[in-house]
Amino acid sequence: MIVSALLTSLGINFGLCILYFTLYSILRKQPGNIEVYAPRLVAEGKSRQESHFDLERLLPSTGWVRTAWQLSEEELLSASGLDAVVYMRIFIFSLRVFSVAGIIGICILLPVNYLGNELNDIDFSELPNKSVDLFSISNVKDGSKWLWVHFCSAYLITGVVCFLLYYEYNYISSKRLASFYASRPQSHDFSVLVRGIPVTSGSSFSNQVESFFTEYHSSTYLSHSVVRRTSKLQGLISDAEKLYKKLTHLKSRPGQKFQRNGFLGLFGRKVDAVDHTEKRLQDLEENVRIQQSDVSLIGEEVPAAFVSFKSRYGAAIAVHIQQAINPMQWITEQAPEPNDVYWPFLSSTFLRIWISKLLVIVASIFLTVIFLIPVVFVQGLANLDQLEILLPFLKRVLSITFVSQVVTGYLPSLILQMFLSFVSPIMKLFSSMQGYISHSQIERSASSKVLWFTIWNVFFANVLSGSVISQLKLFLDLKNIPSRLAAAVPAQASFFITYVLSSGWTSVASEIARAIPLICELIGGCCSKSRSDEFDVPSFPYHKEIPRTLLFGLLGITYFLLAPLIIPFVLAYYALGYIVYRNQLLNVYLPKFETGGKFWPIVHNSTIFTLILMQTIAIGIFGLKKLPLASSLTLPLPVLTLLFNEYCRKCFLPIFHAYSAESLIKKDREDHSDPAMGEFFDKLVNAYSDPCMRPLSYSDNADRHISPLLGPAQV
User: What percent of the residues of the chain are helix, what percent strand, and what percent coil, each to the nearest 5?
Assistant: First the structure.
């Protein structure tokens, strides 16, 4: 790619960013858009629509930037939880890393790379027509002493990243402990999920649980709630929700509405559509109440139960000690928050969960192979010679300078980004099939899947040409990995620079513009005169955003030595993201679960992998550049990085797995004198009731249906 094509991509994406930010600064102030740009504030009652006219609404402003910038970390922690703080710490960590990398890369490495040829070959007047590779390490002559500058930079950036990584791990660990000490008693701290309850003839699962924990945990056992099979009830509630949405839509339409009461509304006599739908909804609610009563009294129990204890320490002992001689019975794990429970897999057997995990692995591999199709297409777009051979009828069009610049500089990364948008929901679906018991576990699992899928298919699949088999052969041939990567990675520098622009800059700007929710809101407003006061406030998509954020860190660190021209663009992405996502977490997203910062180990592992990748490529590039001594002296660097990683795992990772006995007992003693604990334990008995057993009141006659005929049976 030539410099002018890069500048074209830069101009297009910079223009899109300015457009998105300008539109946001105007549209967010319009009264009708408040549920698009501040749904969280509306749900919390902190913002409302204003009807009076104000000229200032029509002018772009930057007040939101100041508000987002001034938001303190404590305010963010209070508003959105520790997970949001962890996500923003990724940006803070990255800004610090790439500020140092930018100084080294732009002030030292970039001039060294550009001056790699003879001085009389440089013509600055022809710079726009020169290849971007002129600024990469490929331009440095083989055996040149200037390569020692790159060698020293590799050690320096590794030291900087490890120091900052240790600081962040330590900081977030302390934040996790501080958040635990400051928290009020939480249901999940006192509860465990028990599965694999053994079957005994003449005794129910509920009796089995009570008998077992009364005998072996007599001093700490409080109560339990057996899981019941509610699939039929879930279907009825789903039908009621659909009917309620239909009724809301009918009421919003002007005029009298009629329909036939026969099959599919096509046969039978004419009836008033609103009255008929209301009657059906009332009947369905009554049916739900009857089913809830049946489930409470005679519903089928499954071999799983939530067991609550009188102390956090008692719950921790139940989780971390094997309960029975047979390890397949009385299997315990920490219970999630009640609103975080993912109910579908609670009744699954070990065999079903194992088969599900196996199928997910196969499906993930299949998706990886299929995704090579768009990757190969994108590689063709990035190379005009290949594209002209493949599609000869486009040769005349591609000869136009601006068209060729757009095709090579902007289109490939845009197309790849479009295909990647389908990956995160698919991976979340895969994770939900693996037997996890909470939405937060599904989110973390999906984050890891999307991250490694993105690294493989965006980075390695674009860098290494050929089939999946040929790519796998590279990693099986350990001896040639550095040299193969060193030969292939620098060649894709220009593509990844444009990828940072299109998938980085533009995605951040489009995030704040919220184009799709805005369009949906406009369509909904045009289709209905009156609107329901109820609307869904979105939760932050960690499984989508964390992998994307980490990918740009991988690209920046990997190309730090090879093509430092990428550093300013990566740094600009993190600066934009820091402001935009603070604004979104404050105004748009409402947290629906809390992991206590458990996303950070994913960030740490990804960064360590990135460092190892950069160091491996450095070993290979020094070998290719005929500087074997530098290549040999770089070999200790991956070893030192792995030792550092092991040290961090020993120091900090246990804090993210479980709280220590010291912390749990200290917290239990603090709560011992709290008079509110009696009320808390009373509520804890019913904390883990199935949502299907909650009262359903969609119809206008809600007073008659405010509770099920009988409450859920709790023990």
Answer: 70, 5, 25
Spatial distance between the Cα atoms of 26 and 17, rounded to a whole number of angstroms: 14
Tally of structural domains, the chain: 2
Q: Does one domain contain both 171 and 232? A: no
Token pair of 714, please?
A: 């709790």
H or E stretch at 331: strand 331-334
* Dihedral over alpha carbons 477, 478, 479, 480 (to 10 degrees): 60
Residue 599 DSSP class: T
**535 φψ region: left (φ > 0), alpha (ψ -120 to 50), beta (else):** beta
- Please list the rounded mean pLDDT of every run of 10 residues in the chain (715 residues): 71 87 88 85 74 69 88 92 95 96 93 68 51 77 88 95 96 94 92 89 86 93 87 77 74 61 56 72 78 72 90 94 90 91 80 86 86 67 52 55 55 70 88 88 92 86 60 59 77 83 86 85 60 69 93 94 91 94 93 91 95 93 89 94 96 92 93 87 87 68 44 40
- Is the backbone of residue 612 left (phi > 0), alpha (psi -120 to 50) or beta? alpha
Residue 417 near residue 505, CB atoms below 8 Å: no
Round to whole Å and give the CA distance between 173 and 160.
20
Measured CA angle at 635 (ends 632, 639), to 5 deg: 160
Single out the residue of 302, 544, 316, 313 nearest to residue 431, CA to CA: 544
Question: The domain containing residue 676 runs over which residues?
Answer: 187-348+664-705
Q: Tell me the whole-structure pTM to 2 decimals.
A: 0.85
User: At a CB cut-off of 8 Å and minimum separation 6, what does 423 contact?
Assistant: 367, 371, 450, 453, 454
Say yes or no: 258 and 395 in one domain. Answer: no
| AA identity, residue 460 | F
Residues in CB range of 678: below 8 A, 6 or more apart:
none
Torsion of CA 613, 547, 583, 566, to 10 degrees: 30
The full length of the chain comes to 715
Residue 474 main-chain phi, psi, to 5 deg: -60, -45
